[in-house]
Amino acid sequence: MNAPFVEVERLRVRREFLFVADGYAERRRILVVQGRRRNAPRPVAGEGFTTTKKIGGAVVRNRARRRMREAARLLLPALGVAGADYVFIARQDTATAPWPRLLDDMEKALVSLRRRLLPAAGGPATPPSDRT
To answer: What is the model's pTM?
Structure first.
């Protein structure tokens, strides 16, 4: 797949995270990746990272977040969709999983979201309106 590289910017405001939460989600053992197209598309992709106290103390959460940031830095420019936002959510094993496994899970989630977010690929441009 020879997709053009996408410029990435950071999501910083809570409402941006909540907007993405109403989109698609790909759940993997190591992490969850949420994605949603913006209402007013821009030529960049947005990225945000979140960890909860459920996965551990501050040291574990920070390690998980750093690992997700680095994996996203490597994968999102090639696999992300311009005009879409992504939120990466850490799970229990994110901080301790082998690096290749983390990359593999993130790559599979991004590829799956890409198929769903690109209207030309047959997927709907907007997420389903009812959440079940």
So the answer is: 0.87
Q: Is 65 helix (H, G, I), strand (E, B) or coil?
A: helix
Q: Enter the tokens of residue 126.
A: 């907007």
29 and 105 in contact (C-beta within 8 Å)?
A: yes
Beta pairing, strands 24-27 & 44-50:
unpaired
Give the count of domains, the chain. 1
User: Residue 126, SS3?
Assistant: coil
- Give the domain extent around 45: 11-117
122 occurs within a structural domain: no
Q: pLDDT, tens digit, for every residue of 59-83? A: 999 999 999 999 999 999 999 999 9
CATH number at residue 60: 3.30.230.10
